[in-house]
Description:
There is one protein chain. By secondary structure, the protein is α/β, with parallel strands linked by helices. It has 10 helices and 18 strands. The strands form 5 sheets. A 7-stranded mixed beta sheet has the order 1-10-9-8-4-5-12, sandwiched between helices. The longest helix is centred in the first third of the chain and has 19 residues, at 48-66. The mean pLDDT is 93.
Amino acid sequence: MSVNLNISQNKLTIPVDEFFSMAARINKKRGFLFVSKMLGKHIPVDPYKPLLASGLLALSYYESLTDTSLDHIKSVTNGFLSDDRKELSRAYDLLKSKPLKLQEAPIVIGFAETATALGHAVFDCFDQAYYIHTTREAVDQLTPEFNFKEEHSHAVDQRCYADESILRRNHPILLVDDEITTGRTCLNIIKELHAKYPRKHYSVLSLLDWRLEEHMNQYTALEKELGITITVHSLLKGTIEFNGKPLEEPLTEFHSSTSDRSEVVIKKHDFSTYFERLPGSSYLSNSGRFGIDESVREKIEESCQNASNQLNKEVLDGKTLCLGTGEFMYIPMKIASYLQGDVYYHSTTRSPVQPLDSEGYAIRSGFSFPNPEDQEVQHYVYNIPVGKYDSAIIMFEKEVSEEETEELISIMAEQEIHKVHLISCS
């Protein structure tokens, strides 16, 4: 397989290799994956990197929308490009100190799975806003406000448990994703939203925009059909040409660890006192899955700081791996950002990607295991080199047992991580 790129726009002049590396999907609908270096999903990053990338997306959108120049966007960009944790932290403090103000509070919608934290951190940049992320989770006692399809995805069905009273407000809707290739997912959600909560304008914010002319024409056609305008804003824009045949099955079997988990020192932490649980559920109420506004932003920040303070009392010598799990990315990322020491962050995922231990390839290693929170769903974790980390902090939204984490702990043992902290937030 090969993917040829033609870059047509890079507003902040961020080097292209800072955005992504490439890998092969195991998906007959789409054979390739832009493995983001900005998200903290497949590739380990300093936890400030994805928070700053989200900020840059919000800042550049604001500049385009208001036709103004923000004095601090260059400093935030330089901070993002740094590998020095103090510079990254200073850039994030600067970002937070200058919230963006729109005439009307935006309704920010982040797409699961990869953009849940991206959307949340975009929401953080606005003075007044509302945030909801879509989900693949079916919450028994709740009925989604709407459903839609993410057709190219490994798991296509998406749900949104938004507050109807919020969606009925005629406020700007910002759809946030890490990448749009055809843009069909955004069209699907706009159709669903417009059928129930019509308005005149929708915006799409994405780190990458690879739509061809035919895809942009589909946006124009929907604008005419519904009498609306759709604005698309991205940090990097261009076109791609894919050659080859997508993988329908793995070239090699994913590795399932059989290492002796007794070699790992396990410490469990119950952080449920810091975070609020959705009544009658094991889910957190303020994760973004059920909608939040600016009134709980400070409470989320305080909860993450308290959790980090407790972990900082532990001895975290050497390199520490922090793992979010599935859609649960933002809160683990924020906790990781307040940890002391040499900290790296990324997340487990539902998406199968072909590992290949080859220089320049994005997914050098991969493991599969049953999701501890739902054993019927297969999860994957990538790019944990043998011997790189001295300890790991694995963060779950729900409470999990040692038995449910058995295979994941065995993976840590095989990668020579001999101290693991298991965090339950609910």
